[in-house]
């Protein structure tokens, strides 16, 4: 049976660090409040970097780690809701920048914070079906560009960053064992960013003030509660479908949105603290970048060994959610 495996990982963070103390100068907040309620101490902000430049940097690292040339990549999928341009897609720009062969399919998909796992799921299916052999999967977001920096309820939460993996086929019982993606558009109002289009010049309402600014808009409490329940269920789904139990998990890599959400999930699932990867304190919520950045740090800085079971799980605007169970090769 052919599965896909992660042959290499990479990530890229902007240089500028914005601490909670820096934020105290922008809005009525405190380092203590942000740390206690979210676990975040600082985040990275793209000033000279772009969605493309971070994606390319992360992709090059993933290709190098996998020992695969860009010329052999035959699929590019990017999860992002903050592309540099409306079109062409970030994936098309990456294709040109890396020198991936013309004709190779390259696409972006929109699933907010679940974007990377959505992209991974689709790439996995292309590899399993034999259509693709070397799939580049990227998760990237620059939420600093869609945040109202006067809104303390959202601006303390997010940061910028990109992560990438290179998927290749493998035989046997390792690689991506199970992967699931889901959505429920009924809850869209709890977390969204409006204003992608200018009002129609032909509308009678034009100029009437109905235009919403393109900033992240969130019902924090509702999002929190739904996230805990949904992420917990998504973990169970990935494990059951892979024929694994909670005890088999070597490392849980959850979407880094809030340490309190992660703690509640961990307690529900009875997964010990030392088995949960956290880097939210350094980067905040980097949306689609969150999981591939965490995965890259886990693989490079921690002893992830052949045979280890990694459980990846995400939740985001839409609502969208996704999970994957991986036996490391
Ligand atoms: N600094 C200081 N005070 C703040 C603040 C900030 N940055 N943001 C909100 N507050 C205040 C509120 O105004 C409120 O004050 P009040 O009691 O006088 O009305 C108080 O803190 C409590 O606000 P509340 O919204 O109830 O706090 P909370 O404990 O729910 O934490 C979040 C708020 C946003 C941290 C939390 O709801 C959360 O993390 N939600 C999920 C967000 C998320 O993960 N989104 C992405 C999903 S992918």
Walk me through this protein's architecture.
This protein has helices spanning 20-24, 31-38, 51-66, 90-98, 115-128, 152-155, 220-241, 259-269, 280-283, 290-301, and strands spanning 2-12, 16-19, 42-45, 75-79, 106-109, 135-142, 160-171, 175-183, 191-192, 217-218, 251-254, 309-316, 320-327. The strands form 4 sheets. It has a 5-stranded mixed beta sheet, with helices on both faces. The protein starts with a strand and ends with a strand. 32% of the residues lie in helices and 25% in strands. It has 2 domains: 2-173, Peroxisomal Thiolase, Chain A, domain 1 (3-Layer(aba) Sandwich), CATH 3.40.47.10; 177-327, 3-Layer(aba) Sandwich (Peroxisomal Thiolase, Chain A, domain 1), CATH 3.40.47.10. It contains 10 helices and 13 strands. By secondary structure, it is an alpha/beta fold. The protein binds coenzyme A.
Entry summary:
With 329 residues, this protein is α/β, with parallel strands linked by helices.
Write the layout of secondary structure elements.
Layout (H helix, E strand, L loop, with lengths): L1 E11 L3 E4 H5 L6 H8 L3 E4 L5 H16 L8 E5 L10 H9 L7 E4 L5 H14 L6 E8 L9 H4 L4 E12 L3 E9 L7 E2 L24 E2 L1 H22 L9 E4 L4 H11 L10 H4 L6 H12 L7 E8 L3 E8 L2
Parallel strand pairs: 4-5, 4-6, 11-12
Antiparallel strand pairs: 1-7, 2-3, 6-7, 8-13, 9-10, 12-13
Helix pairs in contact: 3-4, 7-8
Bound molecules: coenzyme A (COA).
């Amino acid at each position: 049976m052919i599965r896909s495996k992660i042959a290499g990982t990479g990530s890229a963070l902007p240089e500028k660090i914005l601490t909670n103390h820096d934020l105290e100068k922008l809005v009525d907040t405190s380092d203590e409040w942000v740390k206690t309620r979210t676990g975040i101490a600082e985040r990275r902000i793209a000033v000279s970097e772009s969605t493309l430049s971070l994606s390319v940097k992360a992709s090059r690292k993933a290709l190098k780690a996998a020992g695969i040339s860009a010329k052999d990549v035959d699929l590019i999928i990017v999860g992002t809701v903050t592309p540099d341009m409306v079109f062409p897609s970030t994936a098309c720009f990456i294709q040109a920048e890396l020198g991936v062969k013309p004709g190779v399919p390259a696409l972006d998909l929109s699933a907010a914070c679940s974007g990377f796992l959505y992209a991974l799921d689709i790439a996995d299916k292309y590899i399993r079906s034999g259509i693709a052999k070397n799939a580049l999967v990227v998760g990237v977001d620059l939420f600093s560009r869609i945040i109202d920096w006067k809104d303390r309820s959202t601006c303390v939460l997010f940061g910028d960053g990109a992560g990438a993996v290179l998927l290749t086929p493998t035989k046997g019982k390792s690689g991506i064992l199970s992967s699931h993606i889901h959505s429920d558009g009924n809850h869209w109002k709890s977390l969204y960013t409006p204003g992608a289009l200018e009002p129609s010049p032909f509308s009678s309402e034009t100029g009437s003030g109905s235009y919403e600014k393109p900033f992240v808009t969130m019902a924090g409490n509702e999002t929190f509660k739904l996230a805990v329940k949904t992420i917990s269920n998504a973990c169970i789904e990935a494990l059951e479908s892979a024929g694994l139990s909670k005890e088999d998990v070597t490392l849980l890599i959850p979407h880094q949105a809030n340490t309190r959400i992660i703690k509640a999930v961990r307690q529900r699932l009875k997964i010990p603290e030392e088995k949960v990867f956290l880097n939210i304190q350094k980067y905040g919520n980097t949306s689609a970048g969150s999981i591939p950045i965490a995965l890259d740090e886990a693989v490079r800085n921690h002893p992830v060994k052949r045979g280890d079971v990694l459980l990846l799980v995400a939740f985001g605007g839409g609502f969208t959610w996704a999970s994957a169970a991986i036996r490391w090769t």
